[in-house]
Amino acid sequence: MYRPGMFEADRKGYYACLGVRPFATLDEIREAYYRCAKQYHPDKDPSPSANAHFQAINQAYRTLSN
């Protein structure tokens, strides 16, 4: 299913950030977001890059879910 702005959003790697294909449904995007957020949440991931990764996941989800 094509969504307006789909390919423009992918230039920043939002689909790759969540680990979904460019034609993923909203449900697939939502599931990937919750899976990634749980894995990279700064409270659960002690690595120094966890906060930046978590912010990238949030930005990708906000952009793709609109």
Walk me through the structure:
Helix 3 packs antiparallel against helix 4 (50-64). The relative contact order is 0.19. The chain is mostly helical and 66 residues long. It is globular and about 30 Å long. The protein is built from four helices and no strands.
Q: Which labels suit this protein?
A:
single chain; 66 residues; mainly alpha; 61% helix; globular
Summing up helix and strand content along with how strands pair, one would put the structural category as mainly alpha
N/C terminus separation: 14 Å
Compute the CA-based radius of gyration.
Answer: 12 Å
Mean pLDDT: 87
Number of strands: 0
Q: How would the global form be characterised?
A: globular
- The portion of residues assigned to helices is 55-70%
The helix tally amounts to 4
Largest sheet properties: none
Element-by-element helix/strand order: HHHH
